[in-house]
């Protein structure tokens, strides 16, 4: 299981007004619901029933315990009976974990012929959940509300989305991103407020000079490098000539393997979950150094879950890590990508997504191919190893976080990956997509929103995931989809500006 070390707590609200028999029934029904949800096979995280709460002290104790339990990534609440909402105030003030309010009912249908007042008094979710919802809204506490019977797969699917997002959020709360070198000079969009990012999203960003990385690079054993090169040749398609140890191409593959081992060693030593690189900071030529950016290493590390951002883009590195966590157990894959060049073709106008080297092989349509080609950018221009492939065809969603100076904005765009034409003279990994609702509106709206040229893409995640993420983080989200128009999008941007200014005064 991808999330075997995580759990979600289930807390049922009630009160003692209806007597001991009602309390026993509430507890029994809650246990059955939790058991049924866990056995459905539709939820990625185990739910743990934490009992029925009947007083302010019990609520507060339960939520404090959730805060202090590292395995707990979020709390689900359900009001079986009417639970007076003032008893939830202190507990909600304490709760720091993501919250999901499940508006459900133990019985699926009204027992028309047998229902009596005892049944009515016991099964009060219809107004109990409204009472609870009111106090959460009044306290301006973000949460997800899921409405549906607990056996309904549609309701379970919404819970599953929130669980994945909560897992990504939990992972981010001790996320350390290492910047090898600084950001690319004079680039605005990859910069940002690291202090505010840690407060809002949990990202901790540290600088690491290339010289420190090279101390690890010096200590990598040749035998370990040769073993990793053998792994490359075993895992990826390649020309047989690439295995000729007398060639420059083999040496470049060997260099790439050594760079990967050095990165792995330092990331492990620092407990980092992601990193950035800079093609102008690769170590000094008078000692150990990279002969080009460690593109192959970045590709392989992304596939294993390390966050990555090019040119010092720490926000993308952190966001990609979160995307990867949320994506665990889903089949189609995710990657860091960059808008590279445009293809104007009427209704099929599209954007080529690529990067110099660093695209994750999880999105590859077929087995990646290991190749060595010249890379003429950065402080060193050199033959460089990389994985070459094109992405799968299909629908997906890409996202980015930008710093607007007074807040972070999460921008989300539904996209359609289409089949590209061959690129015989551009040996890089790539994807070709049409942003929704079409190229003109999708690209235009992204630019109006202040979006980056870097983004984090997934075939499996939808806008619902990002809506849940933004709710948990308390940041702005704006979506570009099939229904977007430029006129309405501009209005939404203006309204958001006003809302987030006023909201600071309310919270």
List the keywords.
Rossmann fold; 2 domains; alpha/beta; 507 residues
Strand order of the largest sheet: 10-11-16-15-14-17
Instruction: Describe the main β-sheet briefly.
Output: 6 strands, antiparallel, barrel
Percent in helix: 25-40%
Share of β-strand residues:
15-25%
Shape: elongated
Tell me how many strands there are.
18
Structure classification: alpha/beta
**C-alpha Rg (nearest Å):** 26 Å
Through-space gap between termini: 38 Å
Report the mean per-residue pLDDT as an integer.
Answer: 94
Low-confidence stretches: none
Assembly level: single chain
Query: In total, how many domains does the architecture comprise?
Result: 2
If helices are DSSP runs of H or I spanning 4 or more residues, what is the number of helices?
15
């Amino acid at each position: 299981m991808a999330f075997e070390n995580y759990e979600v707590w289930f807390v049922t609200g009630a009160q003692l007004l209806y007597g001991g028999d009602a309390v026993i029934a509430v507890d029994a029904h809650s246990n059955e619901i939790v058991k049924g949800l866990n056995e459905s096979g539709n939820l990625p995280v185990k739910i743990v029933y934490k009992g029925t709460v009947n007083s302010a002290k019990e609520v507060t104790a339960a939520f404090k315990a959730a805060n202090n339990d590292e395995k707990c990534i979020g709390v689900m609440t359900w009001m079986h009976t009417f639970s007076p909402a003032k008893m939830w105030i202190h507990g909600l003030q304490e709760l720091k974990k993501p919250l999901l309010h499940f508006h459900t009912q133990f019985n699926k249908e009204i027992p028309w012929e047998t229902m009596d007042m005892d049944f009515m008094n016991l099964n009060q979710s219809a107004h109990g959940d409204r009472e609870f919802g009111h106090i959460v809204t009044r306290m301006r506490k973000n949460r997800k509300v899921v409405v549906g019977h607990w056996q309904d797969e549609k309701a379970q699917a919404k819970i599953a989305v929130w669980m994945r997002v909560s897992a990504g959020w939990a992972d981010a709360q001790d996320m350390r991103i290492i910047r090898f070198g600084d950001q690319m000079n004079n680039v605005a969009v990859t910069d940002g407020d690291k202090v505010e990012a840690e407060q809002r999203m949990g990202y901790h960003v540290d600088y690491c000079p290339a010289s420190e990385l090279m101390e690890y690079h010096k200590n990598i054993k040749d035998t370990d490098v040769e073993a990793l090169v053998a792994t490359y040749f075993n895992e990826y398609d390649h020309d047989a000539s690439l295995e000729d140890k007398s060639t420059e191409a083999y040496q470049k593959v060997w260099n790439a393997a050594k760079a990967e081992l050095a990165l792995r060693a330092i990331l492990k030593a620092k407990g980092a979950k992601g990193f950035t690189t800079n093609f102008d900071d690769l170590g000094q030529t008078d000692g150990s150094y990279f002969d080009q950016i460690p593109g192959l290493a970045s590709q392989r590390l992304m596939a294993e879950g390390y966050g990555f951002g090019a040119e010092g883009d720490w926000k993308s590195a952190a966001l990609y890590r979160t995307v990867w966590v949320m994506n665990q157990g889903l089949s189609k894959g995710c990657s860091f990508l960059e808008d590279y060049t445009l293809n104007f073709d009427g209704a099929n106008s599209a954007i080529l997504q690529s990067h110099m080297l660093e695209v994750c092989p999880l999105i590859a349509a077929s087995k990646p191919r290991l190749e060595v080609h010249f890379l003429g950018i950065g402080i060193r221009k050199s033959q460089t190893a990389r994985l070459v492939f094109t992405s799968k065809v299909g629908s997906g969603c890409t996202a980015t976080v930008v710093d607007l100076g007074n807040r972070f904005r999460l921008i989300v765009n539904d996209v359609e990956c289409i089949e590209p034409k061959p690129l015989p003279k551009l040996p890089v990994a790539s994807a070709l997509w049409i942003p929704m609702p079409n190229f003109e509106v999708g690209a235009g709206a992204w630019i109006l929103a202040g979006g980056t040229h870097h983004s984090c893409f997934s075939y499996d995640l939808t806008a619902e995931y990002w809506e849940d993420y933004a709710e948990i983080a308390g940041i702005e989200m704006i979506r570009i989809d099939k229904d977007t128009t430029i006129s309405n999008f501009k209005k939404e941007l203006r309204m958001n500006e006003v809302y987030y200014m006023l909201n600071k005064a309310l919270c």
